[in-house]
Design a protein that fits this description.
The protein is α/β, with parallel strands linked by helices and 349 residues long. It folds into two domains: 5-143, Up-down Bundle (Four Helix Bundle (Hemerythrin (Met), subunit A)); 146-348, Translation initiation factor eif-2b, domain 2 (Rossmann fold), CATH 3.40.50. The protein has eleven helices and 14 strands. It has helices at 3-6, 40-48, 55-72, 78-93, 100-114, 121-151, 179-186, 203-214, 227-232, 258-268, 299-302; strands spanning 11-13, 20-23, 34-37, 159-162, 192-196, 218-222, 238-241, 245-247, 252-253, 272-274, 281-282, 316-317, 333-335, 338-340. α3 (55-72) runs antiparallel to α6 (121-151) and α6 crosses α7. It binds the ligand CSC[C@H]1O[C@H](OP(=O)(O)O)[C@H](O)[C@@H]1O. Ligand LNRAV4D5 binds at residues 50, 53-56, 164, 166, 170-171, 176, 203, 241-242, 244, 254-255. This is Methylthioribose-1-phosphate isomerase. Pathway: Amino-acid biosynthesis; L-methionine biosynthesis via salvage pathway; L-methionine from S-methyl-5-thio-alpha-D-ribose 1-phosphate: step 1/6. Substrate binds at residues 53-55, 96, 203, 254-255. Belongs to the EIF-2B alpha/beta/delta subunits family. MtnA subfamily.
Length: 349
Protein backbone atom coordinates (compact mmCIF):
# COMPACT_ATOMS: atom_id res chain seq x y z
CA UNK A 1 0.00 0.00 0.00
CA UNK A 2 1.20 3.49 -0.85
CA UNK A 3 2.91 4.80 2.27
CA UNK A 4 0.83 7.99 2.04
CA UNK A 5 -2.25 6.19 3.28
CA UNK A 6 -0.51 4.62 6.26
CA UNK A 7 0.41 8.15 7.31
CA UNK A 8 -3.28 8.61 8.18
CA UNK A 9 -3.78 7.43 11.75
CA UNK A 10 -7.51 6.88 12.08
CA UNK A 11 -7.58 6.28 15.84
CA UNK A 12 -4.81 5.73 18.39
CA UNK A 13 -4.00 6.01 22.07
CA UNK A 14 -1.61 8.74 23.18
CA UNK A 15 1.76 7.49 24.40
CA UNK A 16 0.95 8.37 28.01
CA UNK A 17 -2.49 6.78 27.79
CA UNK A 18 -4.29 9.97 28.69
CA UNK A 19 -6.04 10.64 25.36
CA UNK A 20 -7.59 9.04 22.33
CA UNK A 21 -6.13 10.72 19.25
CA UNK A 22 -8.26 10.64 16.10
CA UNK A 23 -8.10 12.06 12.62
CA UNK A 24 -11.17 14.33 12.54
CA UNK A 25 -12.97 12.92 9.52
CA UNK A 26 -15.48 15.76 9.41
CA UNK A 27 -12.57 17.96 8.26
CA UNK A 28 -11.68 15.68 5.32
CA UNK A 29 -10.91 15.98 2.51
CA UNK A 30 -9.99 19.62 3.02
CA UNK A 31 -7.76 19.27 6.07
CA UNK A 32 -6.00 16.51 7.95
CA UNK A 33 -6.63 17.57 11.54
CA UNK A 34 -5.86 15.35 14.54
CA UNK A 35 -7.74 15.94 17.77
CA UNK A 36 -7.21 14.53 21.26
CA UNK A 37 -10.13 13.21 23.25
CA UNK A 38 -9.66 13.30 27.03
CA UNK A 39 -13.09 12.42 28.44
CA UNK A 40 -16.12 10.21 27.90
CA UNK A 41 -17.96 13.29 26.59
CA UNK A 42 -15.20 13.98 24.05
CA UNK A 43 -15.34 10.37 22.82
CA UNK A 44 -19.13 10.27 22.71
CA UNK A 45 -19.25 13.49 20.70
CA UNK A 46 -16.54 12.32 18.28
CA UNK A 47 -18.38 9.07 17.59
CA UNK A 48 -21.81 10.69 17.27
CA UNK A 49 -20.58 13.46 14.96
CA UNK A 50 -18.64 10.97 12.82
CA UNK A 51 -15.30 12.56 13.60
CA UNK A 52 -14.32 8.92 13.97
CA UNK A 53 -16.61 6.47 12.16
CA UNK A 54 -16.75 3.03 10.63
CA UNK A 55 -17.78 0.04 12.74
CA UNK A 56 -14.29 -1.18 13.73
CA UNK A 57 -12.91 2.33 14.23
CA UNK A 58 -15.87 3.16 16.49
CA UNK A 59 -15.20 0.02 18.56
CA UNK A 60 -11.52 0.86 18.92
CA UNK A 61 -12.28 4.47 19.85
CA UNK A 62 -14.73 3.29 22.52
CA UNK A 63 -12.23 0.76 23.92
CA UNK A 64 -9.52 3.41 24.14
CA UNK A 65 -12.12 5.83 25.46
CA UNK A 66 -13.22 3.69 28.38
CA UNK A 67 -9.59 2.95 29.17
CA UNK A 68 -8.63 6.62 29.44
CA UNK A 69 -11.73 7.18 31.58
CA UNK A 70 -10.86 4.21 33.83
CA UNK A 71 -7.54 5.93 34.64
CA UNK A 72 -9.50 8.89 36.00
CA UNK A 73 -11.90 6.91 38.21
CA UNK A 74 -11.13 7.89 41.81
CA UNK A 75 -11.86 4.60 43.49
CA UNK A 76 -9.94 2.55 46.04
CA UNK A 77 -12.44 -0.29 46.05
CA UNK A 78 -13.45 -2.60 43.25
CA UNK A 79 -17.17 -1.96 43.71
CA UNK A 80 -16.84 1.80 43.43
CA UNK A 81 -14.57 1.41 40.39
CA UNK A 82 -16.89 -1.07 38.66
CA UNK A 83 -19.97 1.10 39.26
CA UNK A 84 -18.32 4.13 37.62
CA UNK A 85 -16.93 1.93 34.85
CA UNK A 86 -20.45 0.75 34.01
CA UNK A 87 -21.74 4.33 33.95
CA UNK A 88 -19.09 5.28 31.40
CA UNK A 89 -19.74 2.12 29.39
CA UNK A 90 -23.49 2.77 29.14
CA UNK A 91 -22.82 6.39 28.18
CA UNK A 92 -20.38 5.54 25.39
CA UNK A 93 -22.68 2.76 24.15
CA UNK A 94 -25.44 5.36 23.68
CA UNK A 95 -23.49 7.31 21.02
CA UNK A 96 -24.59 5.24 18.00
CA UNK A 97 -26.79 2.09 17.90
CA UNK A 98 -26.16 0.25 14.64
CA UNK A 99 -22.49 -0.73 14.44
CA UNK A 100 -22.18 -3.75 16.72
CA UNK A 101 -18.44 -3.18 17.20
CA UNK A 102 -19.20 -0.36 19.64
CA UNK A 103 -21.04 -2.47 22.21
CA UNK A 104 -18.93 -5.54 21.45
CA UNK A 105 -15.71 -3.67 22.27
CA UNK A 106 -17.23 -2.20 25.44
CA UNK A 107 -18.41 -5.66 26.51
CA UNK A 108 -14.89 -6.99 26.00
CA UNK A 109 -13.52 -4.22 28.18
CA UNK A 110 -16.12 -4.92 30.88
CA UNK A 111 -15.17 -8.60 30.85
CA UNK A 112 -11.62 -7.60 31.82
CA UNK A 113 -13.04 -5.87 34.88
CA UNK A 114 -15.40 -8.68 35.89
CA UNK A 115 -12.80 -11.42 35.45
CA UNK A 116 -10.23 -9.62 37.58
CA UNK A 117 -12.31 -8.63 40.59
CA UNK A 118 -9.56 -9.88 42.87
CA UNK A 119 -7.03 -7.47 41.39
CA UNK A 120 -6.27 -3.97 42.53
CA UNK A 121 -7.77 -1.05 40.63
CA UNK A 122 -4.38 -0.05 39.13
CA UNK A 123 -3.85 -3.63 37.95
CA UNK A 124 -7.28 -3.67 36.31
CA UNK A 125 -6.60 -0.34 34.61
CA UNK A 126 -3.39 -1.72 33.12
CA UNK A 127 -5.27 -4.79 31.88
CA UNK A 128 -7.83 -2.48 30.26
CA UNK A 129 -5.08 -0.74 28.33
CA UNK A 130 -3.79 -4.09 27.09
CA UNK A 131 -7.27 -5.16 26.02
CA UNK A 132 -7.90 -1.93 24.13
CA UNK A 133 -4.61 -2.35 22.27
CA UNK A 134 -5.49 -5.99 21.54
CA UNK A 135 -8.80 -4.92 20.00
CA UNK A 136 -6.92 -2.62 17.65
CA UNK A 137 -4.21 -5.15 16.80
CA UNK A 138 -6.73 -7.89 16.11
CA UNK A 139 -8.67 -5.57 13.82
CA UNK A 140 -5.59 -4.68 11.80
CA UNK A 141 -4.78 -8.36 11.32
CA UNK A 142 -8.40 -9.13 10.39
CA UNK A 143 -8.43 -6.38 7.77
CA UNK A 144 -5.40 -7.84 6.02
CA UNK A 145 -6.95 -11.32 6.02
CA UNK A 146 -10.16 -9.88 4.64
CA UNK A 147 -8.11 -8.35 1.84
CA UNK A 148 -6.44 -11.67 1.01
CA UNK A 149 -9.70 -13.58 1.11
CA UNK A 150 -11.54 -11.14 -1.13
CA UNK A 151 -8.65 -10.73 -3.58
CA UNK A 152 -9.01 -14.45 -4.39
CA UNK A 153 -12.40 -13.58 -5.90
CA UNK A 154 -11.15 -10.67 -7.99
CA UNK A 155 -9.09 -10.42 -11.17
CA UNK A 156 -6.54 -7.82 -12.30
CA UNK A 157 -8.01 -4.88 -14.18
CA UNK A 158 -11.50 -5.32 -12.73
CA UNK A 159 -13.86 -2.40 -12.28
CA UNK A 160 -14.98 -2.30 -8.66
CA UNK A 161 -17.81 -0.21 -7.24
CA UNK A 162 -18.02 0.65 -3.57
CA UNK A 163 -20.50 2.57 -1.43
CA UNK A 164 -19.70 4.83 1.52
CA UNK A 165 -16.30 4.33 3.13
CA UNK A 166 -15.11 0.99 4.41
CA UNK A 167 -11.45 1.73 3.94
CA UNK A 168 -8.47 2.67 6.02
CA UNK A 169 -10.48 5.48 7.60
CA UNK A 170 -13.19 3.12 8.89
CA UNK A 171 -10.95 0.73 10.79
CA UNK A 172 -7.61 0.41 12.62
CA UNK A 173 -5.79 0.39 9.28
CA UNK A 174 -6.11 -0.90 5.74
CA UNK A 175 -9.90 -1.22 5.60
CA UNK A 176 -12.43 -3.94 4.97
CA UNK A 177 -14.14 -3.33 1.62
CA UNK A 178 -11.05 -1.47 0.38
CA UNK A 179 -8.58 -3.99 1.77
CA UNK A 180 -8.58 -6.06 -1.45
CA UNK A 181 -8.18 -2.84 -3.43
CA UNK A 182 -5.05 -1.88 -1.48
CA UNK A 183 -3.71 -5.43 -1.59
CA UNK A 184 -4.40 -5.52 -5.33
CA UNK A 185 -2.60 -2.20 -5.71
CA UNK A 186 0.44 -3.64 -3.97
CA UNK A 187 0.38 -6.60 -6.40
CA UNK A 188 -0.22 -4.60 -9.57
CA UNK A 189 -3.85 -5.62 -10.12
CA UNK A 190 -4.73 -2.21 -11.52
CA UNK A 191 -8.30 -2.09 -10.25
CA UNK A 192 -10.52 0.77 -11.41
CA UNK A 193 -12.68 1.84 -8.50
CA UNK A 194 -15.98 3.69 -8.77
CA UNK A 195 -16.84 5.39 -5.47
CA UNK A 196 -20.46 6.29 -4.78
CA UNK A 197 -20.44 9.73 -3.18
CA UNK A 198 -22.97 8.36 -0.64
CA UNK A 199 -25.33 11.12 0.33
CA UNK A 200 -26.11 12.70 2.66
CA UNK A 201 -22.80 12.58 4.58
CA UNK A 202 -20.70 11.93 1.49
CA UNK A 203 -18.32 9.41 3.08
CA UNK A 204 -17.66 8.12 -0.43
CA UNK A 205 -16.74 11.50 -1.89
CA UNK A 206 -15.01 12.95 1.18
CA UNK A 207 -13.32 9.80 2.48
CA UNK A 208 -13.13 6.91 -0.02
CA UNK A 209 -12.14 9.10 -2.98
CA UNK A 210 -9.68 10.89 -0.70
CA UNK A 211 -7.92 7.84 0.68
CA UNK A 212 -7.84 5.97 -2.64
CA UNK A 213 -6.46 9.02 -4.46
CA UNK A 214 -3.87 9.45 -1.72
CA UNK A 215 -2.90 5.78 -2.14
CA UNK A 216 -2.54 6.19 -5.91
CA UNK A 217 -5.51 3.95 -6.73
CA UNK A 218 -7.50 4.63 -9.93
CA UNK A 219 -10.72 6.02 -8.44
CA UNK A 220 -13.65 7.72 -10.14
CA UNK A 221 -16.21 9.53 -8.03
CA UNK A 222 -19.84 9.13 -9.04
CA UNK A 223 -23.14 10.35 -7.63
CA UNK A 224 -25.20 7.60 -6.03
CA UNK A 225 -27.76 7.79 -8.85
CA UNK A 226 -25.04 6.96 -11.42
CA UNK A 227 -24.28 3.46 -10.13
CA UNK A 228 -26.76 1.91 -12.55
CA UNK A 229 -25.28 3.75 -15.54
CA UNK A 230 -21.71 2.62 -14.85
CA UNK A 231 -22.88 -0.93 -14.25
CA UNK A 232 -24.90 -0.93 -17.45
CA UNK A 233 -21.82 0.28 -19.37
CA UNK A 234 -20.02 -2.85 -18.19
CA UNK A 235 -17.51 -0.82 -16.19
CA UNK A 236 -18.15 -2.76 -12.96
CA UNK A 237 -17.30 -6.43 -12.43
CA UNK A 238 -17.67 -6.51 -8.64
CA UNK A 239 -19.21 -4.51 -5.84
CA UNK A 240 -17.50 -4.40 -2.44
CA UNK A 241 -19.08 -2.81 0.63
CA UNK A 242 -18.48 -2.80 4.37
CA UNK A 243 -20.89 -3.65 7.15
CA UNK A 244 -22.02 -2.28 10.47
CA UNK A 245 -23.87 -5.28 11.80
CA UNK A 246 -24.35 -8.69 10.18
CA UNK A 247 -27.30 -10.70 11.56
CA UNK A 248 -27.18 -14.45 12.12
CA UNK A 249 -28.94 -15.06 8.81
CA UNK A 250 -26.53 -12.83 6.84
CA UNK A 251 -28.81 -9.82 6.61
CA UNK A 252 -26.38 -6.90 6.69
CA UNK A 253 -26.83 -3.37 7.92
CA UNK A 254 -24.58 -0.92 6.13
CA UNK A 255 -24.71 2.71 5.05
CA UNK A 256 -27.99 3.89 3.60
CA UNK A 257 -28.15 3.13 -0.11
CA UNK A 258 -26.29 -0.18 0.13
CA UNK A 259 -29.41 -2.27 -0.43
CA UNK A 260 -30.16 -0.27 -3.59
CA UNK A 261 -26.68 -1.01 -4.91
CA UNK A 262 -27.27 -4.71 -4.16
CA UNK A 263 -30.49 -4.64 -6.19
CA UNK A 264 -28.67 -2.99 -9.10
CA UNK A 265 -25.82 -5.49 -8.89
CA UNK A 266 -28.30 -8.38 -8.98
CA UNK A 267 -30.03 -6.86 -11.97
CA UNK A 268 -26.75 -6.52 -13.89
CA UNK A 269 -25.42 -9.91 -12.78
CA UNK A 270 -22.53 -8.36 -10.82
CA UNK A 271 -21.23 -10.09 -7.67
CA UNK A 272 -22.00 -8.07 -4.54
CA UNK A 273 -19.51 -8.70 -1.72
CA UNK A 274 -19.93 -7.63 1.92
CA UNK A 275 -16.59 -7.43 3.69
CA UNK A 276 -16.10 -7.13 7.43
CA UNK A 277 -14.44 -8.66 10.47
CA UNK A 278 -16.25 -11.28 12.55
CA UNK A 279 -16.40 -8.59 15.24
CA UNK A 280 -19.17 -7.08 13.12
CA UNK A 281 -21.26 -10.25 13.20
CA UNK A 282 -24.04 -10.28 15.81
CA UNK A 283 -25.37 -13.79 16.36
CA UNK A 284 -27.80 -12.38 18.92
CA UNK A 285 -29.51 -10.70 16.01
CA UNK A 286 -31.54 -13.34 14.14
CA UNK A 287 -32.20 -11.21 11.07
CA UNK A 288 -32.07 -7.71 9.62
CA UNK A 289 -35.43 -6.75 11.07
CA UNK A 290 -33.90 -6.94 14.55
CA UNK A 291 -31.09 -4.50 13.76
CA UNK A 292 -31.65 -1.01 15.18
CA UNK A 293 -31.18 1.51 12.38
CA UNK A 294 -29.78 4.82 13.55
CA UNK A 295 -31.84 7.83 12.49
CA UNK A 296 -29.88 11.08 12.33
CA UNK A 297 -30.86 14.79 12.19
CA UNK A 298 -32.65 15.95 9.00
CA UNK A 299 -30.27 18.88 8.53
CA UNK A 300 -27.64 16.39 7.42
CA UNK A 301 -29.79 16.22 4.29
CA UNK A 302 -30.91 19.84 4.11
CA UNK A 303 -27.60 21.55 4.90
CA UNK A 304 -24.15 20.92 3.46
CA UNK A 305 -22.71 21.08 6.97
CA UNK A 306 -19.23 20.34 5.80
CA UNK A 307 -17.82 23.76 4.95
CA UNK A 308 -14.71 22.26 3.34
CA UNK A 309 -14.45 20.64 -0.09
CA UNK A 310 -16.83 17.79 -0.84
CA UNK A 311 -14.14 15.77 -2.63
CA UNK A 312 -10.34 15.84 -2.94
CA UNK A 313 -8.76 18.29 -5.35
CA UNK A 314 -8.25 16.80 -8.80
CA UNK A 315 -10.13 13.53 -8.24
CA UNK A 316 -11.62 12.09 -11.44
CA UNK A 317 -15.40 12.32 -11.58
CA UNK A 318 -17.87 10.86 -14.09
CA UNK A 319 -20.82 13.15 -14.55
CA UNK A 320 -23.39 11.88 -17.12
CA UNK A 321 -26.44 14.06 -17.21
CA UNK A 322 -28.82 11.13 -17.93
CA UNK A 323 -28.98 7.33 -17.90
CA UNK A 324 -31.08 4.70 -19.70
CA UNK A 325 -33.64 2.51 -17.94
CA UNK A 326 -34.15 -0.66 -20.05
CA UNK A 327 -37.70 -1.40 -21.14
CA UNK A 328 -37.78 -4.66 -19.20
CA UNK A 329 -37.61 -2.64 -16.00
CA UNK A 330 -40.51 -0.40 -17.02
CA UNK A 331 -43.97 -1.37 -15.92
CA UNK A 332 -45.87 0.97 -18.20
CA UNK A 333 -45.41 4.08 -20.33
CA UNK A 334 -48.24 6.54 -19.97
CA UNK A 335 -48.90 9.25 -22.55
CA UNK A 336 -51.81 11.57 -23.39
CA UNK A 337 -52.96 8.85 -25.80
CA UNK A 338 -53.13 6.10 -23.24
CA UNK A 339 -51.12 3.54 -21.33
CA UNK A 340 -48.65 1.25 -23.02
CA UNK A 341 -47.57 -2.03 -21.45
CA UNK A 342 -44.69 -4.23 -22.44
CA UNK A 343 -43.78 -5.40 -25.03
CA UNK A 344 -43.67 -1.78 -26.13
CA UNK A 345 -44.22 -0.87 -29.78
CA UNK A 346 -44.04 2.90 -29.57
CA UNK A 347 -45.38 3.18 -33.11
CA UNK A 348 -48.68 1.89 -31.73
CA UNK A 349 -49.17 4.92 -29.50
C1 LIG B 1 -15.66 -0.92 8.00
S1 LIG B 1 -17.18 -0.44 8.62
C2 LIG B 1 -17.58 0.79 7.50
C3 LIG B 1 -19.04 1.10 7.50
O1 LIG B 1 -19.36 2.10 8.47
C4 LIG B 1 -19.92 3.20 7.77
O2 LIG B 1 -20.89 3.87 8.50
P1 LIG B 1 -20.49 5.26 9.24
O3 LIG B 1 -19.61 6.03 8.30
O4 LIG B 1 -21.83 5.93 9.49
O5 LIG B 1 -19.80 4.86 10.51
C5 LIG B 1 -20.51 2.57 6.53
O6 LIG B 1 -21.71 1.90 6.79
C6 LIG B 1 -19.40 1.65 6.17
O7 LIG B 1 -19.71 0.64 5.26
Amino acid sequence: MNTNITDLKTVRLSQDGSAVIILDQTRLPGSEVYISLFSAEDVWDAIYKLKVRGAPAIGIAAAYGIYICSRLIAADTYDVFYREFLRVKDYLASSRPTAVNLIAALNRMEKVVTTHAEGSVPEIVQLLRAESEAIRTEDAAACRRIGENCLSLLRPGMGILTHCNAGHLAVSEYGTALAPVYLGEERGYGFKVFADETRPLLQGARLTAYELQKAGVDVTLICDNMASAVMRKGWVQAVVVGCDRVAANGDTANKIGTSGVAILARHYGIPFYVLGPTSTIDLNCPDGESIEIEERHPEEITDMWYASRMAPEGVKAYNPAFDVTPHDLITAIITEKGIAYPPFRMEDL
